[in-house]
Amino acid sequence: APSPCPPPPRARGRLPRKNPGRLFPGKHRKHPGGRGNAGGMHHHRINFDKYHPGYFGKVGMRHYHLKKNQKFCPTVNLDKLWTLVSEQTRLNYAKNEAGLAPVIDVVRSGYYKVLGKGKLPKQPVIVKAKFFSRRAEEKIKEVGGACVLVA
User: Fold this and answer.
1) Where are the alpha helices (DSSP H) in 52-98?
2) Within this chain, do residues 126 and 84 fall inside the same structural domain, yes or no?
C-alpha cells in the first residue's frame, strides 16, 4: 500500500523500485566475481596486493621432520615447590614417624625443570622432573630428599 504522504523529491532517486536485490545498480546476481578468494591472482589482484601482500607464493625450504617445541622447558624454583601440593599433605608427612616422603611430580603441574632459588623446609621430599639444576639437586638432597628423573 502506498504511504499516505509522498516522499520529498530529493529522496525519489533512492527509492527502491521493484526488487533492488543487493541495493541498487542492477539486480542481485549469484556470484559475479567468483566465490571466496577466487581470482586472487587475476581479477581481484589489486585487492590482494593491497590488503594481503605476500599471500601467494612460497618462502624458504621445507623441513620434513621438524621437531617443534624443542626449547620448551617451563621452570619452577625450590621456593615454589611446596605450592604444587596441598598444605595438608605437607603437614601430614611432617607428622609422619615412618620416614615417608611426599612425591611432588612437577611435570604433572606443567613444569619440566627445577631450579635452585630459595630454601626448602627441613623435610624430605621426592621430586620428579625432567631436569634439575645442580643447586636444586644439592638442596633437595641436603634436606634428605631425592631427585627422580622422568622421561
Assistant:
1) 87-95
2) yes
**What pLDDT, in 10s, does the model give residues 95-138?**
887 888 999 999 999 999 999 999 999 999 999 999 999 999 99
Mean pLDDT of the chain: 89
Burial classification of residue 106, based on how many CB atoms lie within 10 Å of its CB (0-12 exposed, 13-18 middle, 19 or more buried) = buried
Cα–Cα distance between 98 and 100 in angstroms, integer? Answer: 6
- Is position 127 within any domain? yes
Alpha carbon of 25 to those of 10, 36, 62, 103, 117: distances in Å?
18, 22, 48, 74, 72
Q: CB under 8 Å to 55, separation ≥6 — which residues?
A: 40, 48
Record the cell numbers describing residue 107, joined without a space. Answer: 611435570
Statement to judge: residues 50 and 80 lie in one domain: no
Count Cβ atoms below 10 Å from residue 95 Cβ, excluding itself: 7
Number of domains present in the structure of the chain: 2
* HSE-up (13 A, CA, CB side) for residue 142: 12
Does 91 fall in a domain? yes
Instruction: Answer yes or no: is 133 within a domain.
Output: yes
